[in-house]
Design brief:
The chain is an alpha/beta fold and 598 residues long. The chain has 21 helices and 26 strands. Strands 12, 15, 17, 18, 19, 23, 24 and 25 form an 8-stranded mixed β-sheet that branches. It has a 6-stranded parallel β-sheet with strand order 10-8-7-6-1-11.
């Protein structure tokens, strides 16, 4: 009788849960529909201007979560697209006789990573080869927005607007002081050679180590050199002058930007109509210019594949690397391996571009994916295209490719590993009054015992040696695979490794990558190696997930995240960072840095 009571109660809970989930889905879809009200039907006319306003997030890869952009606060769906579609649409606009030019006006709330910005900028430079114009207008320019806008023929700024030109900085949050107050002790395990492997530093130090400071300084210097050099070339300015302007804070007002040649005029947005007319754009019968967003252009002029042509497949590795399976926007070894295998078994796909945008993660998961890349490479060319970052485990899964193409702003390398334990005996006993007791079959039987990720006792010297042996072995495997994959002497790899982070520019100079460029260049190299450069199509090979199951899972996750973060957003950020570290098991190949140029 007790069994049937439990069974019926469980069944009722499942039914009620399912009904509530579907009701919530209905509410969400109504919200999505409501958010679309008031939109006008755009059309492409012979006098069309395509506007890039960053109304949508531009991501490295298609999201695996159909509800990722849903805002529970406003019950609306945020717009989102991914890099390949943006690049294809700009290329289509280049050859579309109806399109007169591109208008950059970053009024939207969308975001884009450094790699995305660099590649969109390169696509706009290519677009200008058609003879069509690119103009930019903004009320305020961040450094990232200005870097992108600097390709324009003319740059305009609001007379009372803002202009940021101060240089780049990278800071890290160190938690050791907080851990000390809580009675927690983080112990890191990394090979002696990995002195630059800084992922553990926030938990064991209160500031940067000399090695970490040196590599971070090199990274910001390299990125700043790319920004300054590119802007100087586009605007015909002196690079040294641009650096001085930032150091001296000489560009803080619109008049300063005009005086030093960073913009061409200070005007109001309505005055842009006269500028369009100067480029020969004519108004329509309604007396208005036909300006449509890039998102609208994607919908109205979709890129049609060449049916029957051999394909270059694109496989994505976006996010942190984890073991097993998962349905969120991260790199899971089982999921990505299945996708790579699908690309390998597809006879129509003649070459594969492996787009990697990952700081790494689990060393074991990275090795599982590396193996699948090796099997794929034996049957068809594999070209890695690195996004904003492809470091540590992200480099591990890239090292075996036939060629590696990295953006100049890519953060890569970080060839190194670590392990970490959080010992909390003092916190549990002295702060919380919690004690544990144990019976065991041997001295090490409770090795790794923990409460909510916090170790309940101090580790022994033997256990410490065992952990160090594990990280040493993984480091040896990692560096060996880099040496073989990149055809570099082991001595050279060991010199470049040590957990050290490199920019995409230096990666090419050092032999860790083959060329600087983006997704377009990687696709061209793949087609060339496959011998299909004269006739091919591009196809995305995506993970096979159940949309309904994924939606149900994500609805629950999003709701919980919203309720928590709405009250303690800042605390949640730090807490989630620590929670992610505690959730990591085994040896990690992870690089925590993500640079921003905004």
């Amino acid at each position: 009788m007790k069994f049937f009571k439990i069974f019926l109660a469980t069944l009722l809970a499942m039914v009620v849960g399912t009904v509530l989930s579907w009701v919530l889905c209905l509410v969400i879809f109504v919200g999505m529909a409501g958010s679309m009200e008031g939109t006008t039907q755009a059309v492409i006319t012979p006098q069309t201007i395509v506007k890039i306003d960053l109304a949508e997030n531009i991501t490295e890869a298609p999201t695996k979560n159909p509800m990722a952009g849903f805002d529970f606060a406003t019950m609306t769906m945020a717009k989102s697209t991914h890099l390949l579609k943006v690049l294809q649409s700009i290329e289509a606009a280049k050859g579309d006789a109806r399109v007169k030019g591109i208008y950059l006006n970053f009024t939207g709330l969308g975001s884009a990573g450094t790699g995305v910005i660099e590649e969109v900028r390169a696509a706009l430079i290519d677009f200008k080869q058609s003879g069509k114009f690119v103009v930019a207008y903004n009320e305020t320019y961040s450094q990232g927005a200005y870097y992108l806008a600097s390709v324009a023929d003319k740059i305009y700024l609001h007379p009372e607007g803002g202009f940021s030109w101060v240089g780049l900085a990278q800071s890290s949050l160190f938690m050791k002081g907080a851990l000390d107050k809580l009675g927690l002790k983080a112990e890191a395990f990394r090979p002696t050679a990995c002195k630059y492997k800084s992922a553990v530093e926030p938990y064991i130090r209160k500031n940067m180590s000399p090695e970490n400071r040196a590599q971070m300084q090199m990274m910001v210097d390299d990125m700043w050199a790319v920004l300054v050099g590119s802007i100087a070339e586009s605007r015909n300015l002196d690079a040294k002058k641009l650096m001085r302007l930032a150091d001296k804070l000489e560009v803080s007002q619109p008049e300063d930007a005009l005086k030093h040649g960073l913009v061409d005029a200070l005007i109001y947005e309505d005055e842009m109509e006269a500028k369009f007319a100067e480029y020969g754009v004519e108004k329509g019968a309604d007396g208005k210019f036909n300006i449509i967003s890039l998102g609208e252009y994607m919908t109205l002029a979709p890129v049609m594949p060449k049916f029957g042509a051999p394909a270059v497949g694109i496989v994505y590795a976006e996010g942190q690397v984890f073991d097993g399976e998962g349905e969120d926007d991260n790199v899971y070894s089982v999921n990505v391996s299945k996708t790579l295998r699908k690309a390998r078994e597809d006879k129509d796909i003649k070459a594969v571009v492996f787009r990697v945008n990952s700081p790494g993660g689990s060393a074991l998961a990275s090795d599982v994916i590396w193996r699948e890349v090796e099997l794929l490479r034996k049957e068809k060319p594999v070209i890695v295209s690195m996004g904003s970052y492809a470091a540590s485990g992200g480099y591990y899964i890239s090292a075996g490719a036939d060629a590696i193409v990295a953006d100049r702003l890519t953060l890569t390398g970080s060839i190194g590993v670590f392990g970490m334990l959080l010992e909390g005996e003092d916190m549990l006993n002295k702060k919380l009054g919690l004690t544990t007791d144990v019976v065991k079959t041997g001295a090490a039987a409770d090795f790794g015992a923990n409460v909510m990720g916090v170790g309940v006792r101090k580790i022994t010297d033997l256990e410490r040696k065992t952990l160090l042996r594990s990280v040493d072995k993984v480091y040896e495997t990692f560096t060996s695979k880099v040496a073989n994959g990149r055809n570099l002497p082991m001595d050279k790899v060991l010199e470049l490794a040590q957990g050290r982070v490199w920019s995409g520019t230096r990666a090419v100079e050092l032999g860790l990558a083959d060329a600087n460029g983006g997704l377009r260049e990687a696709i061209a190299i793949a087609a060339d190696k496959a011998g299909v450069v004269d006739n091919f199509r591009v196809t995305e090979v995506l993970e096979e997930l159940s949309p309904i199951a994924q939606m149900m899972q994500q609805l629950n996750m999003q709701a919980k995240a919203y309720l928590f973060d709405a009250e303690t957003l800042e605390v949640a950020e730090y807490y989630n960072s620590l929670k992610r570290e505690l959730a990591r098991e085994g040896v990690q190949a992870y690089c925590p840095y993500a640079f921003s140029i905004n």
